[in-house]
Design brief:
- The complex is a heterodimer.
- Chain A has 14 helices and no strands.
- Chain A is an all-alpha fold.
- Chain A has two domains: 72 residues, no CATH class; 231 residues, Orthogonal Bundle (MetI-like fold), CATH 1.10.3720.10.
- Chain A is globular and about 85 Å long.
- In chain B, 50% of the residues are buried.
- The N terminus and C terminus of chain B are likely disordered.
- The chains are: A mainly alpha, B alpha/beta.
- Chains A and B meet through α10 and α11 of A and α3 and β13 of B.
């Protein structure tokens, strides 16, 4: 286990180095000129040139890269063109909202997957569930997010459809409002945060639930015709017990891999969903950064997402080895 | 043990298991087929009844029906009646079935490797069986260090250990009926003998009746009081084990008995086999299912379905219209012509010199895995035209040696020299798995013809010839593997191997999953092919009797080392190593029946 963790940390560093190289390369390839962007569109060429010199943009590439790396090591991701603040400060501000939304949608997605797969297995000939899954699965996320927002907020007004919280000036130690509400002894804040969270999290959870659910369902079908399941049934266990004790755990490996893939897609979907629901997180920040060609901000977010992705995949591999003790990390 | 007369007198009280006119229909891809067709039998407490038949005869389905565990995907339809300890089970609610499985019926599966949950410790799996101390039961099955075994995960245990765990798991529920579905087929002979002893002792102790499902009459004879012979879902003969083994009344039973081979069989001529195998024809409402293969079939056999009637030859019953003529079946067994001597040349087809190989095992540490030697300096030469059998138990390194010979695995030390530049052909254990499901037989056989269009007349002619060579009707060229029987698939695999005759044919346990008559047929076919095509052969097996029949020399492998290489008869008559002696001693003999 220790060896595995050491290996995955080394792996993460290698991946980060490669990412930094790509990010750095992008900076010099993309036609957007940071010097021009900082100096303003109407600045005379001399000013732009001065800014360029000040930023060190006319040094050789290798020196620029070295500088870039050392800044990266100090969590310095540069200055946002749009907000005029250090990108790392911006990320620190917006990350908790995205973490809260992302974790909630992963949890909700996994719950959806479990319910769908188990129901589909216990109720034979459940063509309805299958049809529903195909229907929901084929709806693009920008549409399902809009539909959820339209019906549950605009039309019936059951749930809030914009923002994170109805309480102003609430701030807690973790930045995750649901948890902070409980920590600070204000359960009404947690409830309100949950109500705000529900619609965007559901929009993000649907594709995760469908993909993981289908993978789990397929794996369950295979596992439940294994000889050891017959052995379990032969002991006179009820079908539910057989499914929960012998089926699920053995079927877990493939759907967990699928979850890992879905988390990567989740990062992209966050941009759309946070935009639709006005969720003040990294996704919305990135969309705005795109609109104003804010390259440092976009690249900073990319590095954060990269780290999160490595973290999630390490966790998933640990989860797989816990489900199947034969997988020796 | 239960006497015959006692059974008659006890017919007043209900036997604890009474199966009446049981029929089971399974639907595969929408096509219903009747796998069990009107079966009636009783079992008494403590009785061991063997259920014997070829693969596809429905014997496994009977065992599953008695547990209510027929696969749901096949939409099973069960008719007739099963009364177990006074409870009617046909049409019973799933709650009744569960309570029956908890208290009354348990099973030991065929494949101990797959029958234990790989992600649960033995202790947790055994805890789901009610009754007794787990360590106590494990040690009763002869497992040393039961505490360690209980806390282990299944993949850390050997096949024999797992089968003992499964037996303990079944017996600790103190069932009245134990269904043992080929419990020893997947195990080595020495382990097999121990498991049979264990079953005998445990059931005697607890008065558990065993329904012993097997294709191996030798194994059945060593354990059972009574035998039911099953063909195409019907019982064709039943009676006391000894009676049937000595004086079988049904032509099929006679054929099965004659197809047995052991260490005394005549190896100079082809083995006696059952008449040509078919896909078992079921759904024959008004005919004897065996009529198409029966050597004494007459016109009425295809018009009247024979019912079980008192057998003329013994105290049991047989379903044959012409029981009186069955003695002619034996008379027809004229000895076949002896094999011609194989043309063995002095040149080596394959020369292995000091070959060694290790595999990583055990826990991965920070520095990688430890490695365990599977082969230590093995030297073996196979001459052109010679057949060498490699005998050993699982884990001895047989398959690794074969893969090295085939060029599929590189040895870590030593040299491999082949006479032919072309790689040898390999025949694997499972013929069905060795064929691609979506290509026709003809396409797969023809694939080995290089530079020829697969649809050309020439290719089709070559494929047809290869199929004829292995005894397959060329009409089957355009069928898919799923539409053929296991025996036909094995022939197709062989046809693929010999369409371009290799100088060396490697066979990896080609008969170990087959029932007796199919195994005998395959041994005959291989013996014939290697002589006709002048092939050298490496025949890997754990079955000493089969090795003795097919090979010119036997090499015994133990723990990666050759302990003995000698002439087959010499090895059996005067084994030089203690290991070979233990292999011979463990062969299941037909103790119940007389040797013919």
């Amino acid at each position: 286990m220790l060896a595995y963790l050491a290996k995955s940390i080394v792996g993460a560093v290698v991946v980060l180095l490669m990412m930094s190289l790509i990010v750095f390369g992008l900076q010099s390839v993309i036609p957007a000129d940071p010097a021009r962007a900082i100096a303003g569109p109407n600045a005379p060429p001399e000013t732009v040139e001065a800014v360029r010199k000040e930023l060190g943009l006319d040094d050789p590439a290798i020196i620029q890269y070295g500088r870039f790396l050392s800044r990266l090591a100090h969590a310095d991701l540069g200055t946002s063109v749009r907000t005029r603040r250090p990108v790392s400060d911006d990320i620190r501000q917006y990350l908790p909202a995205t973490l809260e939304l992302g974790l909630a949608s992963i949890a909700l997605g996994v719950a959806l997957a479990l319910v769908m797969a188990v129901l589909q297995f216990l109720i034979p000939g459940s063509g309805g569930i299958r049809l529903l899954m195909v229907g929901v699965g084929s709806t693009p996320i920008f549409l399902s997010a809009l539909l959820l927002s339209y019906f549950f907020w605009f039309r019936f007004d059951w749930l809030p459809g914009a923002g994170r919280l109805g309480y102003r000036d609430f701030a807690g130690p973790t930045g995750l409002n649901v948890i902070d509400g409980i920590l600070l002894g204000r359960p009404e804040v947690s409830v309100d945060a949950l109500r705000h969270l529900l619609l965007p999290a559901l929009a993000l959870a649907l594709p995760i639930g469908i993909a993981v659910g289908r993978s789990l369902n397929g794996a369950l079908h295979e596992v439940m015709s294994e000889p050891y399941v017959r052995t379990a049934r032969g002991k006179g266990l009820s079908e539910t017990k057989v499914l929960l004790r012998h089926g699920l755990r053995n079927a877990a490996t493939a759907p967990l891999s699928m979850l890992g893939l879905q988390v990567r897609l989740l990062f992209g979907n966050l941009l759309i969903v946070e935009r639709v629901f006005g969720w003040p997180g990294l996704g919305l920040y990135t969309v705005q950064a795109f609109a104003s060609a804010d390259l440092p901000a976009v690249l900073g977010v990319a590095i954060v997402f990269g780290i999160l992705y490595i973290l999630v995949n390490t966790l998933i591999e640990i989860g797989q080895s816990m489900a199947d003790p034969r997988i020796n990390l | 043990m239960v006497k015959h007369s006692h059974r008659m007198s006890s017919s007043v009280t209900e036997p604890f298991l009474a199966v009446r006119d049981l029929t089971v229909t399974l639907s595969r891809e929408g096509r219903p087929s009747r796998v069990i067709d009107g079966i009636t039998f009783d079992m008494l407490p403590g009785e061991v009844v063997a259920l014997v038949g070829e693969s596809g005869s429905g014997k496994t389905s009977i065992g599953l029906t008695l547990q209510g565990l027929l696969p749901r995907d096949y939409q099973p339809l069960v008719g007739g009646s099963i009364r177990l300890a006074g409870i009617e089970l046909v049409g019973a609610a799933s709650r009744t079935w569960r309570s029956v499985r908890r208290r009354l019926v348990r099973a030991i599966p065929q494949d101990p490797m797959g029958a234990l949950n790989p992600t649960m410790t033995i202790r947790h799996q055994m805890r789901e069986s009610n009754g007794g101390s787990i360590e106590g039961w494990l040690s009763r099955t002869g497992l040393p260090d039961p505490g360690r075994i209980a806390d282990a995960l299944p993949h850390r245990l050997s096949g024999g250990q797992r089968q003992r765990v499964l037996i303990a798991m079944a017996m600790m529920a103190r069932p009245k009926l134990l269904i043992a579905d080929e419990p020893t087929t997947a195990l080595d002979v020495t382990v097999q003998a121990q498991i049979l002893d264990l079953l005998r002792a445990l059931t005697r102790e607890q008065q558990t009746a065993i329904l012993f499902v097997t294709h191996d009459l030798n194994v059945a004879a060593s354990l059972a009081d009574r035998v039911l012979i099953l063909y195409a879902g019907r019982i064709v003969e039943m009676g006391r084990m000894q009676d049937v083994a000595r004086n079988a009344a049904h032509p099929y039973s006679i054929g099965l008995l004659a197809a047995r081979y052991d260490l005394d069989s005549d190896r100079r001529r082809p083995l006696i086999t059952l008449p040509f195998e078919h896909v078992p024809p079921v759904n024959l409402a008004s005919a004897c299912a065996y009529a198409q293969r029966c050597p004494i079939a007459q016109l009425d056999c295809t018009a009247i379905r024979p019912s079980l009637a008192a057998a003329s030859a013994h105290g049991g019953a047989a379903a044959c219209l012409h029981q009186g003529q069955t003695r002619f079946v034996s008379a027809q067994r004229v000895d076949a012509k002896p094999w011609p001597a194989p043309a063995i040349q002095a040149t080596a087809a394959l020369r292995l010199h000091n070959v060694s190989k290790t595999y990583p095992t055990g826990n991965r540490s920070f520095w990688g895995r430890q490695s365990q030697p599977v082969l230590r300096s093995v030297s073996l030469t196979i001459k052109l035209g010679e057949c060498v059998a490699l005998v050993g138990e699982s884990g001895a390194g047989k398959s690794t040696l074969l893969r090295i010979a085939a060029g599929l695995v590189m040895p870590e030390g030593g040299t491999v020299t082949r006479f032919d530049k072309a790689l040898p052909q390999v025949v694997f254990q499972d013929p069905v798995a060795a064929l691609t499901p979506w290509l026709t037989i003809g396409e797969q056989i023809g694939e080995r013809l290089r530079g020829v269009s697969r649809d050309s007349d020439y290719a089709r002619r070559r494929v047809g010839e290869a199929m004829k060579l292995v005894g397959l009707d060329p009409v089957l060229m355009d069928t898919l593997p799923a539409e053929m029987s296991v025996g036909q698939c094995q022939r197709a695999v062989l046809a693929r191997a010999v369409i371009v005759p290799p100088r060396l044919l490697l066979c990896d346990e080609p008969i170990s999953a087959m029932d007796v008559s199919l195994a005998a047929t395959t041994l005959n076919l291989l013996s014939d092919l290697r002589r006709r095509l002048d092939m050298a052969m490496l025949f890997v097996t754990h079955d000493l009797a089969a090795a003795r029949i097919i090979a010119d020399r036997i090499a015994v492998l133990k723990d990666g080392e050759l302990v003995e290489v000698a002439d087959p008869d010499a090895i059996v008559a005067a084994p030089q190593s203690a290991y070979t002696r233990s292999l011979i001693a463990a062969m299941p003999g037909p103790q119940g029946g007389g040797r013919r």
